[in-house]
Amino acid sequence: MDDGVNVNGHEQSQSQSRKKNKACAPCRHQRRRCPSNCPLAPYFPADQEQDFLNAHKLFGVGNILKIIQACQNSEQKRMAAQTMKWEANRRADVDPVYGSAGIVWDFCQKIQSCQLELHSLLHQLALYRPQSQLQLQHQRQNVNYPISGPLKLDGEGSPFPDQNHQNDGS
Ligand SMILES: [Zn+2]
């Protein structure tokens, strides 16, 4: 029990001192001391250096700083930094030409293709609908015929011929 507490306490103090000593990725890149109120440190920590390098390549440190400082609250700043990192990583790793716009473009094309398919299916459905209605009418007529047929035959031919003869005779 005591060992666990000591180990956890040791780890916590180690990570705290690491955070204090390590400059954020932008300050490290610019080889300057990272101040305690560094505006980029919360969004580009030292262990996300590649994310920063990609964002720096695409936007530049000055523009990243301008965009983050133009945000009104910490949530907007966090989202803006996340968006810049995502866009920069997408361009660096997957699509250097279109970046995230390539995903939007792909989805637009899929939507267009699905709309064309839907239009074609609705057109086919409109063509088959009158035929199926005619078939339904024929089926209803065929079902009615055999029911009315035997009833007429029963009325014409008596099931008890002997009784008729007995009635005539008496
Ligand atoms: Zn910094």
UniProtKB/TrEMBL annotation:
Protein name as catalogued: Uncharacterized protein
Protein origin, superkingdom: Eukaryota
Biological source species: Bauhinia variegata
